[in-house]
Amino acid sequence: MNLLWWIGQAIGLAGIALNVAIYQQRTRKKLLLFKFLSDIMWFLHYGFLGAFSGAAVGLIGCGREFVFMHTDKKWASKKIWVPIFICISIISAAMTWKSIWSILPACASVISVLSFARSDPKTSRFLCFIISACMLTYDVTCLSYSGMANEVLTVISGVIGVIRYDIKKNDVGIKETIE
Description:
Blueprint lengths: L2 H20 L5 H22 L2 H17 L9 H18 L7 H15 L3 H21 L3 H34 L1
Helix pairs in contact: 1-2, 1-7, 2-3, 3-4, 3-5, 4-5, 5-6, 6-7
């Protein structure tokens, strides 16, 4: 474990802090902003580890979130960008191939494209569990301790977000119907 690896792990700690906050956002715009900032950290993190499949999807994520934050603009049409980002994600796996595990970040990236292209944070919170399963497995293979911790915390954050915004919100509706 050289100095770059340790720097990568430290940068991953910043990524963790940002990821925990993602699924606690009420609006799609704020959720995407936190995701954009975290993707910058993860791009750097995986780059320092030499885990280039992970770094590639971090970079793709930066572009994805930037575009999806601007869907009110004509140039940022989801109809155009969703297939482009899916293709770029798949190509990234081929270009950064080290082993069969290199496909996991690309799978997570494709699901992220579908997740963050949606207008409702509820779907993004649900899909975070599948994304985290892919990335946790990849993190184990490239010894990304920050990444492993991040995925555990992301799942916890996702569960809390589901309880706060999805389940409790539905409980209020149920109570109002009963009363």
